[in-house]
Design brief:
about 0% strand, MetI-like fold, 14 helices, about 70% helix, mainly alpha
Length: about 280
Amino acid sequence: MPGMHRTKERLAVALWYLAAAVGLLFVFVPVLWAIASSFRPLEDIFRHVSPFSLRAFVPEQPTLEAYRTIFAKGFGRALGNSLFVSSLTILLGIYVNSLAGFVFAKLEFPMKRATFLLVLLASMIPFEAIAIPMYAMAQDLKWLDTYSVLIVPAIANGLVVFLFRQFFAEIPTDLIEAALIDGASWLRIYHSIFLPLSKPAIVSASLILFLFQWNSFLWPLVATPSKQYHVIQVAIANLQIEFQSLWNEIFAAAFLAALIPVVIILSFQRHYIRGIAGTGLKG
């Protein structure tokens, strides 16, 4: 009977790996085809798709024409806009959200739990529900078609506040008491003790803020109609013209748009996992 039990376990593991392999196949086959198609002329993209053959993954006459064309159309500026907006959002967002997390973790004030719950709930509201009020506010501030309208609304992030709050809650309060005895202010305690200790959380928060801005589409589309402020996702959408989809250019732009976050995430993967694990589940 023990042998039969081991056989069932091995069969279950084999079936699990088989299901995972099939799932990966469905995910990666379209991605590989899209990447290969970005190196094809437009007229050759669907040549080997119906009926499907392995030649669909190998361009017969590889060309960089799609990449040259999208950069000639201003994709490079959109790429630079996304990098600039994401970088500035990270710099400002780390400071604002970590300071809020420190306050919620270590300071006591009336309605603390209710306020923290409100911060979390605000981060869960669908963007469509607040798009019109945000647009009206940006219009009153004369921020439409500026970098400010892309950066400022993304600085405060409830998920990042939660991450820092959980991380700071794990740091012993004895450090605060010793610093207060030495005459340090709360702001100095935050800058000198908590911020230097929160490097794993900073990496995790930076990736969250970066991905949020990098994948942002609807708000940049509404708030910055001028081409000079277009970000990368809006630039990709603009490659689909009225009577034709330029698939090789769309695939080329999408490949570049996906490649940058993947490289960044893989580079900081270890720190990201440490940051998430370090937040714990302390209430």
